[in-house]
Write a structure and sequence with these properties.
The structure holds 2 protein chains of 2 kinds. Chain A is built from 8 helices and 1 strand; from the N terminus they run H-H-H-H-H-H-H-E-H. By secondary structure, chain A is mainly alpha-helical. Chain A folds into 2 domains: 3-73, no CATH class; 78-182. In chain B, a hairpin with a 2-residue loop joins strand 2 and strand 3. Chain B starts with a helix and ends in a 5-residue tail after the last helix. The chains are: A mainly alpha, B mainly alpha.
Chain lengths: 184, 203
């Protein structure tokens, strides 16, 4: 490719980037039509698309982080709810417990929770309470029952939150008796 | 063995629980819930609307549109089992007395354990008594039978009947029912019905 061809592609790509950023669809379409007659232009426009998309993603993630930080630092009682991706990890539950600690949270429990916040290990989903306590004990030493209870509750809440993203709910309900039925 | 009996045996097994009639006191309902990973809550003014609010504020449900239709239904409820995929939560009405709340909780636990696939979304039109008399739907009957078998174990009922007979030479069902209802924390009506069903105690 001659230097002047490369320069031409660079100039078109720059104009194309501006068109994408301004949301000018007509201009974008016109540049894509040019790809049929300018060799090498199509690959360049695809690269521009990828760059713009990647910048946008990073900006969005950064915006979300900034909003979350602002909310949690200025609204002390506020919290940002997240949905864990993949298996629920020990860290996910401990982070949630850190944000919403139960009443009468002892120093011992706080210190234990800080250790658990560093664990990336997935929690086996099938464990009932007794086995969950034993599982935690093998990894983190003795776990107070009150802490383990709260840990299980939060772990189940997070699992349901995750399920709520793509599952439909089912329910079975029974009506309350009204006063006249109560006295029958 | 019936489906209900199988479910109770499995629950005992999963909870490492053995029913010992020599031990006195109510069955450990709280333990059962924890061992099978079902949460349970007692809420005031129970309705689908208050439950949906609870699900959203507790963070169990992430988006409001998941439970929008529930938010609009304020029909007073005695109990509800809510399921989302592999997870379930049981709700009971806070205003009910303890024996009734326990029966309702056990009933909802029965739904959570036995009716994962056929629960759908239903609100029973008629009030269901904890003596099971008004039940018209099979699924509700199973949940009632489950609650009765779980909270009032046959082996305990028969042992107490023997004890009463040994003590007094007779075992009137009414007296036995009062004794057992207070020991097992269930209503006297529910106990009478269970004893009658099992043919335990004298008429």
């Amino acid at each position: 490719m001659k230097p002047q061809d490369r320069l031409k592609i660079d100039l078109i790509a720059e104009d194309y980037r501006n068109a994408v950023l301004l949301g000018n669809l007509k201009l974008q379409e016109r540049y894509y039509t040019l790809t049929q007659t300018v060799p090498g232009l199509l690959d360049r426009l695809i690269d521009v698309d990828a760059e713009v998309y990647s910048d946008h993603e990073a900006e969005s993630a950064d915006d979300i982080r900034q909003i979350a930080n602002a909310a949690t630092s200025h609204l002390i009682s506020g919290q940002v709810m997240t949905v864990p991706r993949g298996p629920i990890r020990v860290k996910d539950v401990a982070d949630e417990l850190f944000r919403t600690p139960p009443g009468q949270w002892t120093t011992e429990q706080q210190l234990l929770n800080e250790r658990l916040r560093k664990s990336e290990e997935a929690i086996p989903v099938e464990l009932g309470f007794t086995r969950l306590m034993a599982w935690l004990a093998t990894r983190f030493g003795e776990v107070p029952e009150r802490y383990a209870e709260r840990f299980q509750e939060v772990s189940l809440t997070l699992q349901m939150r995750q399920n709520s993203m793509d599952e439909q709910y089912a329910l079975a309900a029974r009506r309350a008796k009204n006063k006249s039925e109560e006295t029958k | 063995m019936s489906r209900v009996a199988e479910a109770v045996v499995k629950l005992h097994h999963d909870s490492d629980y053995t029913c010992d009639p020599a031990m006195r006191g109510p069955v450990p309902l709280q333990k059962f819930f924890r061992e099978v990973r079902v949460q349970h809550f007692s809420l005031g003014s129970l309705s689908q609307a208050t439950i949906a609010q609870h699900l959203l504020t507790s963070g169990a449900v992430f988006r409001q549109d998941t439970v929008t239709d529930m938010l609009e239904d304020a029909t007073p409820l005695a109990g509800l089992c809510f399921r989302l995929g592999t997870t379930a939560i049981c709700y009971v009405r806070e205003e009910d007395i303890l024996p009734r709340r326990r029966f309702t909780a056990a009933h909802e636990l029965g739904h959570a354990l036995m009716h994962q696939l056929d629960m759908g979304r239903f609100l029973l039109d008629e009030a269901v008594d904890d003596d099971g008399r008004d039940t018209h739907q099979e699924i509700e009957k199973e949940a009632n039978d489950f609650a009765a078998a779980l909270l009032m174990p046959e082996i305990v009922l028969r042992r107490r009947a023997e004890e009463l007979r040994t003590e007094h030479g007779t075992c009137p069902r009414q007296a036995l029912s009062y004794r057992l209802a207070s020991e097992l924390l269930v209503s006297n009506e529910a106990m009478r019905y269970r004893l009658k069903n099992l043919g335990v105690g004298d008429e």
